[in-house]
Amino acid sequence: MAAGKNAALTQTILAATAVENALTLSERKKLAKQAVDEVVKQEQRAVHESDLMTNSKAAQNAALDLLGQAAKAAIEQAEDATKVDELAQSGQQDLVALTVAKKNSYATLRQVAAKDLQQVAGDANRLASEKQEEVTAIQAALQKVFALIDRQKEQSAVKELDVLSVYADQLANRTIHAGVEKLSNRKEAAEQTVAALTKKAEATINQDASLADAEKVDQKNAFEEAAKAAEKRIAQAGDADQVHQVEEEAQTTLSSLHQAMAASRAYLQEKTTSAAEKVENNQNLSASEKAERQEAIQTLLHNAFRHVDDQRTVEAAKAAIDDFDFDQALAEIVSDRQVTSLEDRKQLAMTAMTNSASWTKLVIEQKMGLSAVSKVERQSRIDDELVQVQEKINAETDVDTVNQLSRQFEKTLAALAKQKPARKTAPLTAAVNQESENDHQTSPEADLTASNQLGKSLTDQDKKEKRTWFRFPFLTGNRFFASAKKKQDSAK
Asked: Which of 410, 432, 414, 412 is nearest to 423 (CA)?
């Protein structure tokens, strides 16, 4: 059986050989050229189906055409059948080898470039802009070396190219492998920037003749807290971009916060100056009434300034003038309306103090740097103070004493809301300033966030009480409650 198959194969080979031997040299050359053309088309199809860029495909196809033409020209010059066959075989092999060599060079280059791209992407020391610069440089280097590979017309020429050296030469001036500024150095530089800006801001505050000493302290405290929050965020930053972002935000705040505060204070000052002139020119008021109202205007201005100086961001400082009905409060002070009854004065003073106490407790609840224990202690202190002052006012028969008690209560509330546990000042009372042994202050960053979010967390009722808190402290000791009394009477 096997012998029969071998005999048949032998006959087939002998028949094919007889056909080949019968071909003329010209016919043999024609078939050889056709074989070369088929391989050219085969390799060009492979190039077309690859993921190469259009210009690379065109360049490689052109090289295949040239190599195929050279092989066919050599076949045409052959003088015998044996030479034709040899040239046809070597020509086809060269075409395939050229495509394979280029493909291998591409793969090697891409592998190295991928590692470089990965290294750049994962480098925490670089800014995003710096990373993009390196990525662009890597991609440009790749395209240049790819173009060089594409232009080669023979396998040997491709192999002789040291593509990795050519690629490295293209990136010789880049910092992909040379390293960049360390993240720790960036952080240190950012912290130094924050410290320098804080120092500059404090110098500006010290030179501001429009600020009282206490107001300068308040503003410097605001800057110190903003700086501490920035320093903490810098320390926690995980890469160069985060450090850069915090540094830019800190520069904006520390460079412009005092200016924003000054602009808001100037606005408030202008409004109060106008109101003071109206009071002074009001012929319906006695000298003592004018004095009372001028005092109320200055108290309003002082507390409004205090609110502005307590802000920690430029946006908050600008918006602080809208946090309460400043214009309405001024209008009520300037108004001719009076409260003449002692009982009316007592009732309205108590209403004002109750509203002020409610808002102050809300302020303390949102207070930066206070523990839960300290907040409860201060809020309980307010309740106790309110009960005591109400009892005293109820027992009073003198209007001036009612006014004095009311004003003193507002000062106590202001002190409780304003005081910071970390500052070494004379204690308001032992109960106010004694911090619990377990009292842990919040972080500067959390303080800043709480300050910025305070307005967002308030309900409409909270905001109403907040406006009342700013207005009533300046009205309880004066004669400007007729409108409130009217509303109270109509509600009965």
From this structure: 432
